[in-house]
UniProtKB/TrEMBL annotation, chain A:
Cofactor(s) the protein requires to work: Ni(2+); Fe cation
Residues the record lists as binding Ni(2+): C63, C66, C414
PROSITE patterns: NI_HGENASE_L_2
Organism: Modicisalibacter xianhensis
Record's protein name: Coenzyme F420-reducing hydrogenase, alpha subunit
Keywords attached to this entry: Iron, Magnesium, Metal-binding, Nickel, Oxidoreductase
Organism placement in taxonomy: Bacteria, Pseudomonadati, Pseudomonadota, Gammaproteobacteria, Oceanospirillales
Binding site for Mg(2+): E44, I370, H420
TrEMBL record, chain B:
Keywords: 3Fe-4S, Iron, Iron-sulfur, Metal-binding, Oxidoreductase
Domain NADH:ubiquinone oxidoreductase-like 20kDa subunit: 18-154
Name assigned to this protein: Coenzyme F420-reducing hydrogenase, gamma subunit
Entry's Gene Ontology molecular function annotations: 3 iron, 4 sulfur cluster binding; oxidoreductase activity
PANTHER family: COENZYME F420-REDUCING HYDROGENASE, GAMMA SUBUNIT, HYDROGENASE SMALL SUBUNIT
Length: 431, 260
């Protein structure tokens, strides 16, 4: 019997600390496990006893890469508990801020974390020696996203301007207009990005995923919607916990989420795109078509393409919001604390991010539940490894290990978030 | 600062954190390729799978110490680093996860995890300087890009970084901000908080919430008195000092004065 283990004990170019291990016996994968050794930080515990108004600043610290996602799910859940709804220009400003984070986070992943896998480099700095123009384009695109965050949020990481009910300060129309030129250029860079990644060599691998994402009657989902799946699920955000379960496995400080029947599901760009293709503007659908994408993409190695499509969308959406913007009279809706339970779900760059809070009459948090996208994708990542690795076993060890890493990075896993979340051990039974 | 003639080696390490401070290096879009030309990025797993083993001239350390394994690992980092600089509130003061230091960690674990026996963690979250000598501490939650570039530049040039230790109030004055506390009665930690952000929150019409931690020689008692006069109760006062730098001594001691 031949036995081989492929092991990566500290996975690079992901956010946070993880590893994985794949065991192969006689050409068959017998186990594929992600382990997450990111130290737990206990956010759901430390939020108890805090004021509802403090929560967006605290939950932002779960993740330095997608703080806006945490802030947006938090404020939505709090507003749900407090019985208010943010609409009009304030809602659009939140979408704009979220567009900034999508552009920044997706550009980071496409250019600095994922593209080096396709082009055969250890990282973007090495890649820049041969592909300097591409890396500079990626950095410029990333910066455009960060410019939105800095103007509207105050800073790129852990923005300070988001509050329950709205913002602390809303920009004047002319302030936002300063972003338009940057974003028009970013839209061109996003077009070039999509054409660039469309030329990569993608392994032809597909799986019949259960996609889960928000859907919305009018918009490609960012900051709100119903929770839908590719198998017909269509529920309100407040029903999330009836349909999705979290379990705790020994190898991980991240909880794993599954559908209540135990099946895995996929959140993130592939899911959003498959469930909301018709909500993309015609120009973006056309660009996706030209890049070789149909309305559904089941090849996880092509997630980089879908991310590029979403960057293009985010640039267009940001421009649309800026052009239509008129400053509201109030920066935030006034709030009277009350007892209540609130649910919130938004689309972080990596996928669905669910929050639930219970408040005392004075607005103090009694308990909190937060389900980040990477813990939802963890089961899918392990299944991808188990399903795809067998077909790559003719690769030499180092190339096989690299391919496994790429398979995990398809998900842009954010381990800092998921911890409550990664290591690669590849065991393929040495002869 | 490196041994003669060799490009200095930079390493970036992560302990318990959100990754935001090391992301700040990748957020230096205009400077990143320049930095990469001036130093050899020898260890930075968030950015590259290529690693160079051995000794590093400058180690940037993000995150706090919260596990027995990390309490060992930081000594290894220290041994392999000529200069060790902590970046951000977690590494410098224990971070938001340091709120466990005021609570029972076993109870914290039981709230989040179904199987507490799978979790290995320490009762406290402590800054890097509580474990090994630190050459410089850069403040902020997150750190500021400009200050990070200053730190790297300074260490390359063999000088101390210039990062003023005065209060956020001075930054407001320099910026010409109207005082949010005096003019609008908005509670603000600016008078006791370390500069570095450029008085960001007051510039957005909100009070400073202390994410850069205490300034050099702060005097929080009279500020607490003023905050009380604005209507803040004991619990509010305790909360305002207990966030991202809750375990910085000046903030910890002041918060303990307001135990309900």
């Amino acid at each position: 019997m031949t036995r081989k283990t492929i092991k990566v004990s500290y996975l690079a170019r992901v956010e946070g600390e993880g590893a994985f291990s794949v065991v192969v016996r006689n050409g068959k994968v017998t186990s594929a496990e992600l382990s997450i050794f990111e130290p737990p930080r206990f956010f759901e515990s430390l939020l108890r006893g805090r004021a509802f108004s403090e929560a967006p600043d605290i939950t932002a610290r779960i993740c330095g890469i997608c703080p806006v996602a945490y802030q947006m799910s938090t404020v939505q859940a709090m507003e749900n508990a407090l019985g208010i709804t943010v609409t009009g220009p304030l809602r659009n400003l939140r979408r704009l801020l979220y567009c900034g984070e999508w552009i920044e986070s997706h550009a980071l992943h496409i250019y600095l974390l994922h593209a080096p896998d396709f082009l055969g480099y250890a990282g973007a700095i090495d890649m820049a020696r041969d592909h300097g123009d591409a890396v500079r384009r990626g950095l410029a695109l990333k910066k455009a996203g960060n410019d939105i965050m800095a103007l509207l949020g105050g800073r790129e990481i852990h923005p300070i301007n988001v509050r329950v009910g709205g913002f602390y300060r809303v920009p004047h129309r002319r302030e936002l207009a300063t972003l338009a030129e940057t974003l028009k250029r970013a839209r061109e860079l996003a077009d070039e990005t999509l054409r660039w990644v469309a030329g990569f060599d993608f392994p032809e691998r597909e799986r019949d995923y259960t996609f889960v994402a928000l859907t919305h009657s009018e918009d490609y989902p960012l900051s709100e919607g119903r929770i839908a799946s590719s198998r017909g699920l269509d529920i309100g955000v407040d029903q999330y916990e009836d349909y999705f379960l979290e379990t705790h496995v020994a190898r991980s400080t991240a909880l794993q989420s599954r559908l209540s029947d135990g099946a895995s599901y996929l959140v993130g760009p592939l899911a959003r795109y498959a469930l909301n293709f018709d909500r993309l503007p015609p120009s973006v659908r056309q660009a996706a078509h030209e890049a070789g994408l149909g309305p559904v993409c089941r090849n996880p190695y092509q997630s980089i393409l879908v991310r590029a499509v979403e960057v293009l969308f985010a640039c267009e959406e940001a421009l649309r919001i800026i052009e239509a913007y008129e400053a509201p009279e109030q920066a935030a809706i006034e709030i009277t604390p009350c007892a209540g339970i609130g649910h919130g779900a938004t689309e972080a760059p990596r996928g669905l991010l669910y929050h639930r809070y219970r408040l005392e009459p004075d607005g103090t948090i009694i308990d909190a539940k937060i389900v980040p996208p990477t813990s939802q994708n963890q089961a899918c990542i392990e299944e991808d490894l188990a399903n795809f690795v067998e077909s790559f076993l003719d690769l030499p060890d180092e190339a096989l290990r690299h391919r496994c890493e790429q398979t995990v990075r398809n998900y842009d896993p954010c381990i800092s978030c998921a911890t409550h979340f990664l290591r690669l051990d590849m065991d393929r039974g040495s002869p | 600062m490196a041994a003669s003639g060799r490009t200095p080696r930079l390493a970036v390490w992560k302990f318990a954190s959100c990754d935001g401070c090391q992301l700040t290096l990748l957020d230096c879009e205009d400077e990143l390729l320049g930095i990469a030309a001036a130093v050899e990025i020898a260890y930075f797993p968030e950015a590259t799978r290529g690693t160079i083993r051995g000794h590093y001239d400058l180690s940037l350390v993000e995150g706090s110490i919260t596990t027995p394994h990390d309490a060992e690992r930081i000594h290894e980092v220290r041994r392999r680093s000529t200069h060790l600089v902590t970046i951000g509130a977690c590494a410098t003061a224990g971070g938001i996860q340091g709120l466990r230091n005021f609570a029972d960690v076993a109870e914290y674990i039981s709230v989040v995890y179904a199987r507490p026996d799978y979790i290995e963690t320490l009762a406290t979250s402590t800054p890097i300087a509580a474990h090994v000598p630190v050459d410089f501490e850069l403040r902020g939650c997150p750190i500021a890009k400009s200050q990070l570039v200053e730190v790297i530049t300074a260490f390359l040039a063999g000088r101390r970084p210039v990062t003023p230790a005065h209060s956020v109030c001075i930054e407001c004055k320099l910026k010409g901000n109207v005082c949010v506390m005096v003019a609008h009665g908005t509670p603000c930690l600016g008078p006791v908080t370390h500069a570095g952000c450029g008085a960001l929150c007051p510039s957005y019409h909100r009070g400073c919430y202390g994410c850069y931690g205490p300034m050099e020689t702060p005097n929080p008692a009279p500020l607490s008195q003023a905050l009380t006069e604005l209507g803040m109760g004991k619990r509010d006062l305790q909360r305002i000092y207990r966030t991202f730098n809750a375990n910085a001594p000046a903030f910890r001691e002041e918060s303990e004065r307001h135990d309900a």
